[in-house]
Amino acid sequence: MTETMTETHAHTSHDVIVVGGGAAGLSAALVLGRARLRTLVVDAGEPRNAPSSHMQGYLSRDGMAPADFLAVGREEIARYGVELAEDRVTDVTRDDGFTVALAGGGTARARRLVVATGLKDELPDVAGVAERFGRDVLHCPFCHGWEVRDRPFGVLASSPASVHQALLVSRWSKDVTFFLHTVAEADLSDEDLRRLAATGVDVVPGEVAGLVVEDDRLTGVRLADGSVHAREVLFVGPRPLPQTGLLERLGAELEETPFGAYPAVDPTGLTSVPGVWAAGNAIGFSEQVIHAASGGYRAAAAIVGDLLMEDLDAAVTP
Ligand SMILES: Cc1cc2nc3c(=O)[nH]c(=O)nc-3n(C[C@H](O)[C@H](O)[C@H](O)COP(=O)(O)OP(=O)(O)OC[C@H]3O[C@@H](n4cnc5c(N)ncnc54)[C@H](O)[C@@H]3O)c2cc1C
Predict the structure, then answer these.
(1) How far is the CA of 244 from the centre of ligand 1 (A)?
(2) b/e map 59-68, b = 16+ CB within 10 Å
(3) Same domain as 227, residue 128
(4) What is the pLDDT of residues 3-32, one digit of tens each?
(5) Ligand 1 centre from 223 Cα, in Å?
(6) Are strands 107-115 and 98-102 parallel, antiparallel or unpaired?
(7) What is the per-residue pLDDT across 226-273, written as a single tens digit (0 to 9) for each?
(8) Domain stop point among 235, 269, 287
């Protein structure tokens, strides 16, 4: 059983602290534990895909409940002595190692850090969207498109870039209405309009005021003028808010992208701060669960080598 701790980490010392126990963090912890490194995972327990009851597209785990996936991961890391604190890291400082402060009280120290804190989705401010998110309000056709295929789709524009989403989802349904919402039709390029027409996407101007929900199912999208468009699925484009606060506190270099600012990392996830790796949605918007797990593995393997070299160098230095 996973060793779950809260305040008992006061002033404890580990080889590695992994901040975040989603796919990225647990995967890193599994590899670190198996490499016999003393590892602590601190997890605040708010994985990004929590609103969804099923996780798709992870080979061999397709359709598994996200909570079950994480429960299995927690069991696996416990086999190798990895400790898990159900807590939140509120601060981090660096000297000859790293000291993290825990919301539940106390601190923990380690020689290396993995930041796997994920991102948060800021949903469009439209009545009903937050309540239905992960059910029939969706953001990612790769995650959920198959399950809702051939149903009447809406796509809620949040910028002219939403055209891409409207075109993309047409792979999963030929009945797509693109609600321009706050985007002016004049802001769409001729190429956008040609592509939307070629794909058969219906473009509807006007602000969206809310969703129509009957018997706990989305049945329509209501515009500000009162008209209702019958739709069973609505795709939205949440604004990603990368959870990079701890990295910023350590002075990590961030790079702006159209989807937020993420740490500059090398192929192993090493940030610009020596000793600090990052993985999963903490390094990029499009990291799916399988990428996050893979990134955690890569970071962990690099840390194993890095610590080994440090220890060897220390041993041979007179
Ligand atoms: C509705 C929805 C459905 C999705 N469906 C799919 C799908 O079907 N298939 C797929 O591949 N992807 C899916 N995704 C994407 C998926 O959620 C991400 O790829 C995945 O969660 C990334 O894993 P992660 O470990 O980087 O972050 P997360 O899973 O978000 O885990 C990060 C963890 O870090 C914790 N944390 C954050 N800050 C701190 C802190 N300071 N201290 C301690 N802990 C902290 C959080 O509480 C959380 O538990 C979906 C996303 C959404 C929003």
Answers:
(1) 14
(2) eebeeeebee
(3) yes
(4) 444 444 445 689 999 999 999 999 999 999
(5) 32
(6) antiparallel
(7) 999 999 999 999 999 999 999 999 999 999 999 999 999 999 999 999
(8) 235
Number of domains in the chain: 2
Same domain, 117 and 243: yes
Sign of CA dihedral 272, 18, 279, 78: positive
Q: Which domain holds residue 199?
A: 124-235
Rounded distance from Cα 126 to ligand 1 centre (Å): 23
Q: Do 114 and 8 fall into the same domain?
A: yes
Residues with CB under 6 A from ligand 1: 19-25, 42-49, 51-52, 55-58, 88-89, 116-118, 121, 134, 140, 143, 243, 280-282, 287-290, 292
Report the DSSP beta bridge partners of residue 201.
Answer: none
Residues with Cβ < 8 Å from 163, sequence gap 6 or more? Answer: 157, 178, 188, 192, 195, 196
CA dist., res. 253 & res. 306, Å (int) = 21
> Do 260 and 117 sit in the same domain of this protein?
yes
Pairing status of strand 233-235 against strand 153-156: parallel
